[in-house]
Each structure stands twice: as structure tokens, then as C-alpha cells.
Amino acid sequence: MDPNHAKWVCDHWGEDYLHHENAFYRMLYVFAICSHHRLTGSEEPLNTLAEMLDALVVDLKGAKYGMLEDYPDECYPADGMVALLAVQKADDILGNDRTQ
Predict the structure, then answer these.
(1) What integer pLDDT is reported at residue 100 of this predicted model?
(2) Would you state the pLDDT for residue 43?
């Protein structure tokens, strides 16, 4: 989650890499926060998780086919399915239900 380790993502998506498309990295980010919370019990990153999740869900709902690009002009449906799983896992932690 350290921005210094996201150079490859910034190269593809620019500085706003956590707020549009970029399904692969964003779902990894969500899973990382979920894992951190489950392993440590820390609630510190949960605000970040909620913000990331809100932005990801808005983008997924607005996507023409329900999937976002992983890289510019590249979309991998399997990553789209895993992004939906990331939303479900994060919702479990945050007490949300976005199954509708």
C-alpha cells in the first residue's frame, strides 16, 4: 500500500491510480487492507478501506459491462470477478451489504 511501490501502476494510470479503472491493483489494495485487519485486528485502515471500496463500487456499477480495465485498453474478466469478491469480503468487515 506504499505509494513508493506503485511505480508500475503510476506508469500505466498516472497519479490518480486509485480512483479510476485499474481493477487489478485496486482489488489487491482492498484485499491487503482486509488481510491486515483480520491478522492484526487493527481498525486504523478501515476508513481507507471504506473510501477505496466506495470508489471501486461506483466505478464497477458505472462500467459498461460491469468490468474495469486492469491496464489501459486491457480488461481481464477474471480480475473483474475477483474485484467483486473483494467488495464482498470488505463489506463483511465493514458491515455493509452491496449484494443488490
Answers:
(1) 65
(2) 94
First to last CA, the chain: 29
> pTM for the complete prediction?
0.87
Residue 8 belongs to some domain of the structure? no
Residue 90 pLDDT greater than 90, yes or no: yes
Give the closest residue to 47 by CA, choosing from 98, 94, 4: 94
Amino acid (1-letter code) at residue 56: L
* Tally of domains within the chain: 1
Query: Please, is 77 exposed, middle or buried when counting C-beta atoms within 10 Å of its C-beta (0-12, 13-18, 19+)?
Result: exposed
Helix, strand or coil, per DSSP, at residue 97: coil
The yes-or-no verdict on residue 92 having pLDDT over 90 is: yes
What sign has the CA pseudo-torsion 46, 49, 55, 56? negative
Q: Are 85 and 37 in contact (CB under 8 A)?
A: no
Q: Is residue 6 in some structural domain?
A: no
CA dihedral 79, 84, 89, 90 (to 10 degrees): 100
